[in-house]
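Morning, I've got a small favour to ask if you have a moment. The fold is given in discrete form, as structure tokens running alongside the sequence. I'd be grateful if you could look everything over and explain what you see. No rush at all, and the record is pasted right below.
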Amino acid sequence: MCGTCGCDEVTAAGTSETVTVEKDVLAKNDRIAEENRAWLASRSVFAVNLMSAPGSGKTTLLEATVRVLADDVFVGAVEGDQAGSLDADRLRAVGCRVVQINTGSGCHLDAGMLARALRELDPQRGSLVVVENVGNLVCPALFDLGERRRVVLASTAEGEDKPLKYPHMFRAADLVVLTKADLVPHLTFDVDHFARHLSRVNRSAELLVTSVVSGEGLHQWFSWLRSELGVPSREVSEPAAPAELEAPSVPS
């Protein structure tokens, strides 16, 4: 897929040169990630690395998140895509400040990319910054960006076996968000089976079952973010259809 992490190379098992290059790449990345983490902490910015396969609903969930949380906290986003700015344009339309990163043939974001994006985004103290990583269930799990939490999305349309087929990704997650729950009646997807598969690879990750269409689970998602941010949770229920809310103005 890309030359950065070497996942496009087919080499014989045990090739020392390939292992050395991979270690060097990851070591450099990890050093920059720690710098990012310190920079974010100095501003009390809560950064989330959002990872998933393409089409899981990352951008749709982010649109709903901006609409609901923008009155409480500055929300910024870093959009990772191989090409184009379709998702970034959608987020800007609901009042989110966005920095676009196009990776070309690259299949993930790395800490250096995020470092440059953060300086451009220049988030306010106490902000929420969501990194929407390139859609891929393999390589993004390898690269620490300096985020505080990793959230993995999986949609019901993808099948309940994904935690078993991509264990490293789900093992890296602090939170797993199952999306498109409104489609379950039309699929053979079993939520309990998905939960058991997730538990086999990661017993500590919390699982949220959500649907932006029906509103299921969104209050729990917003509450999780508010808890991490230290922002008080709302006493009233969140709206069931966030897409109907008026878009907030762009934060200054």
